[in-house]
Specification:
CATH topology of the largest domain: BirA Bifunctional Protein, domain 2
Structural class: alpha+beta
Distance between the termini: 75 Å
Helix content: 25-40%
CATH superfamily of the largest domain: Bira Bifunctional Protein, Domain 2
Radius of gyration: 29 Å
Strand order of the largest sheet: 1-5-6-11-10-9-7-8
Bound molecules: adenosine monophosphate
Shape: elongated
Length: 431
């Protein structure tokens, strides 16, 4: 019987990160690490899989993420686990599980890694993508919201992303949002026939989400909807006012967007997105999303801990870095070692290790045998010096050091070779 033929491919919406792409991930991670250390955020990594309930409760059952986009699996031990669709509930869980409640507050954490959402793939939207998160636990001050925005804003600027703007809104808290929800639902019900089918459903499950529907049909209804900013309680109003004042002080460009609600249940007060306005229309241009989530930690750990954070979409940032011609700094080798014969190959490895310890970037091609070919490669690499280890050098326990700019050569004993090369490089830098 003929076996069915399988075409092995990566799953839809998930891609390999090839070497040429890795350099962008490295660049982002390096900038993130620099900022994190300067602003005292500590690195944390959590498991990719979590108990399904963590997201059902934390992210919220009525959100698109939990309802439609989560990868859920049942293990052989009958556990129900989910591939994390975002980081925040995982970090909140870890905060309690690891006794961070006893640490000096605010506890400031950052993480970077893959997250998974079963969405329809399109440009800038994948099923496996990467996020960089900064989260703070234990401060309810507006300056904490700003610290998170400031960090992301500056990271994006360092990565040469242009035309940045912060979209910002307040969605109130448990004091004022319930009343606003009622006002909104009353209005939306009066307009129900003009809503798209999804929003008709949202009206019952998650009415605030109607406000960020992109359907043309709903846009007209939304433009006349009551706005949360007119219904904030005094505390939320003051908080938001301070946040906007700080943005002004720091000269961070922002757009007050009363329809920005974000998809997740747990947000309170500030919600924001950082967008780049330089991309063509219609592109997925939100680079960072986040906000304050003062009620999430109570839900997970039964303790009233205010919190605030955000997540940056790494792939979307990389796409813009490529567009803006971000220069990846790649180190070029200073030395090439050409070798001939088996013994010379092991000598090469030994010498490479000596040079590595001295931080001298060295290249060799151990699978090649022709000295001429290897020296051609050295020429192409534009190294200052080539080291040659042939059969004679193996016998006399020495190496030849050739100055590639003028072809002059000297011989050095193998034991002193690394030191001699170091001196040569130093001397050359001086001259
Ligand atoms: P969210 O967790 O939905 O607030 O998303 C935070 C950021 O992650 C967004 O601003 C995007 O940059 C990025 N992002 C969200 N969903 C996707 C996706 N499916 N593919 C690629 N990036 C995404």
């Amino acid at each position: 019987m003929k076996q069915p033929s399988f075409k092995f491919q990566s799953p839809t919406g998930m891609k390999d990160i090839l070497p040429e792409e890795q350099v962008y991930f490295d660049a982002i991670e390096e900038v993130a690490r620099k900022y994190a250390s300067f602003y005292s955020f500590l690195r944390i990594d959590t498991p990719i899989l979590e108990d399904y309930q963590l997201f059902a409760k934390g992210t919220g059952e009525a959100t698109d993420i939990v309802e439609k986009q989560m990868y859920v699996l049942k293990t052989k031990g009958d556990e129900i686990l989910a591939l994390r669709p975002e980081f925040t509930p995982s970090l909140a869980r870890s905060y309690f599980e690891n006794g961070m409640i006893a640490w000096p507050h605010p506890v400031k954490l950052y993480t970077m890694g893959p997250v998974f959402r079963y969405e329809k793939p399109q440009a800038g939207r994948y099923r496996q993508f990467h996020q960089l998160n900064f989260e703070t636990f234990g401060s309810k001050r507006p300056i904490t919201d700003i610290e998170v925005i400031w960090l992301f804003y500056n990271i994006l600027k360092d990565l040469k992303i242009k035309d940045l703007a912060v979209q910002i809104n307040s969605i109130g808290d448990s004091q004022c949002r319930p009343y606003y929800k009622k006002v909104l639902v009353r209005y939306l019900k009066s307009q129900e026939r003009n809503l798209c089918p999804t929003c008709k459903k949202r009206l019952k499950t998650n009415p605030l989400r109607v406000l960020d529907c992109k359907e043309e049909k709903c846009q007209k209804v939304i433009s006349e909807a009551p706005q949360i900013l007119d219904h904030l309680c005094d505390e939320c109003k003051d908080h938001f006012k301070r946040v906007l004042e700080y943005l002004d002080d720091l000269e961070i460009p922002y757009i007050l967007n009363p329809y920005l609600v974000r998809g997740l249940d747990y947000y309170t007060k500030t919600v924001f997105e950082i967008v780049s306005q330089s991309g063509p229309d219609g592109r997925q241009n939100a680079l960072v999303g986040g906000g304050r989530y003062d009620d999430l930690l109570k839900l997970i750990g039964k303790k009233d801990i205010p919190a605030c954070g955000g997540a940056m979409g790494v792939e979307r940032v990389i796409a813009l870095m490529k567009e803006s011609g971000f220069k990846i700094q790649q180190a070029t080798p200073q030395i090439f070692i050409a070798q001939l014969g088996d013994k010379a190959k092991t000598q090469t490895l030994k010498l490479m290790e000596d040079l590595r310890k001295m931080n001298i970037l060295t290249e060799s091609q151990l699978s090649k045998d022709s000295l001429t070919n290897q020296l051609k490669i050295a020429n192409k690499l534009n190294v200052k010096f080539a080291v040659i280890i042939g059969e004679e050098e193996v016998l006399s326990k020495s190496v030849i050091i050739r100055d590639m700019s003028n072809g002059t050569q000297i011989s050095a004993s193998f034991d002193k070779a690394a030191e001699k090369i170091k001196q040569k490089i130093k001397g050359q830098k001086k001259s």
